[in-house]
Structure formats: C-alpha cells, structure tokens
Design goal:
Elements (H helix, E strand, L loop, with lengths): L2 H21 L7 E6 L2 E7 L5 H12 L7 E6 L3 E4 L11 H6 L17 E4 L12 E4 L12 E7 L1 H8 L3 E2 L2 E2 L1 E11 L2 H7 L21 E2 L9 H23 L6 H29 L1 H23 L2
Antiparallel strand pairs: 1-2, 1-10, 2-7, 3-4, 3-10, 4-6, 5-6, 5-7, 8-9, 10-11
Helix pairs in contact: 6-7, 7-8
Amino acid sequence: MTLRAFFAFFAFAVLPTLAYAELTPDVARERIVFNTDYGDLVFALYPTVAPQHVKQILNLTRLGAYDTAHAYRIIPNFIVQFTDVKNRVSPLTAEQYAADQKIPGEFSTSLKHTKGVLSMARWDDPNSATSSFSILLADAPHLDDKYTIFGRLESGGTTVNRILGVPREGETPKIKILVRSARVVDDIDTWYQTHPGDPVETIGTPIPQALPASASPAGDSGGNTPAGSLKWLGYLAATILFISVMTFFLYERLDKRQLLSLHMLNGLIAAFVLFIVMIPVGHKQPWVAGVLFIALPALFKFMNRFESSK
C-alpha cells in the first residue's frame, strides 16, 4: 500500500469509524432502574465517557442512597431534575453520606446534550457534581462541553410524560415525585422479560393526571406538614378557639375547677397540635422522633391523672 493510499484509507475509513464510536459510546452492562409512583425509569450508562460519574452513581444506587430522592425541578422542553441524595426524604446512613463525593468534570467534546441524555448537575465549580442529575427533554446545545453526560434514558418515556403532567408552581412540583426505590439491574434482558420497555422517543408531552394515592405532598423534606394533616390541624385550632370563647363568656358562671378543666383541655389539644406538626420533622431528625416517642405516653399519663383527680 502506497503512502497516499494509506492516508486515503485512514481518512475515509478509520476516521469515520472513530467518530461514530465517539457518537455511540459503549453502554455499561448494568442499568439503573428508578421506581416511581408514575412508572419505571431505566438509565443506560456510559462508563467510557464518564467513568468516575458512572462509578459513583452505581455505588450510590447499590447503597440505596437514591431511595426517596425526588424529581424537584421540572422545566418543560428542557429538563426533569432529581435531587442530590443528601436532599432525599429519608436521612442518609453514615455510609451513604460518605459515598456522595464531588466528582471532577468529565466533559465530552463529541457527545451533545440531546433529547433523552442524562446530564450531571453541578454548581459554578466545574468539579462540583455529586449525585443530582437531569433527563434532557429536548436538545440543549448551551450545555455542551460544560456539563457531564454520563448516560441516557433507555426506557420510561410514558413515565417522564406522566411526571411532566404533575401540577407545578414555577419549576417545583406541587407534590413530591418520589423515587420509591432505585436499584442496579445486572441482567437487563431478563428484567425486560417481565417489565416491557417504554419507548423514550415521545418524551416531552405532558400527561395530565390526578395525584396518585401513594404520592406525598411537595415541600421541604425537613418538616413541612403533610396536606392530610392540615385539615386536622384546622379542626383542632377551631376547637381551641371555640373552647376559649366559651370560657370567656362563661367565666362568671363557672367555678374554678370547671375553668381549670377548660384550660387544661385547651392545653391538651394544643399539645396534640404540636405533636402532629412535629411528626414530619421526626422523619428527618431522629432526636425529634425520640422526644415524640417519650412525650406521647407522658401526655396520656397526664390526661389519666387529671381525669382521676376530678
């Protein structure tokens, strides 16, 4: 082969092959599956493009760190973004917390931010990514060479569209879109035998729907009161107000013991209100849960002593 023939062969055969390989990166044997109230999301990973990102995400998933993470940011025609695992609903174990480390940027010059791509979130520092990432709903060239692409959505187009149909306030869903469980699937072919694939080509078209029965209200996972409890809080507050008004108008007609009983009743109701308000905080702060556990039997004992003293 002459030198000219070699260069021609390299230009017309080898270079296109290398370019195609860059545009169609190797996919890891493992898949990550997020189970949500709206269906499953299957993520294929690119270990040759972003090896450190893929390694950390697989490790966090195996440790159960993505369980109770949630999709907290939804921008139609742009992204569905999942929280950092440190912002999930359930508190992390020490092992899970330690595994959520900053990862150096692994920016590809050939892969582009196209529809269905998984893009790692980060702060201003290019090397500040940890575990939050987004599913691209449309092409986003302004992210190219700036954010790490580590995989793509392989299955779950309908699931994404159901998530897009959840009511929002700005970019924030009004209800929590929880990852009920996240796991690594080593044999994806066997998994698909019992879980039919859900095409991703149609992602981006919202499917309006009612709130699933098992879904949680949105808000700060640190302690916002669940919507179901708000009604009861309103009833209890109205009861306190009613008893207070009755006490005011009947003050001259009741003896001291009866007035004390009314005041004590208001105090007990207020204690139950505080108990209900603090329950969500107990999910996040173990010491609060311990205080509530001790306070509840103490409250019932106090009530019993008060009743028996009449």
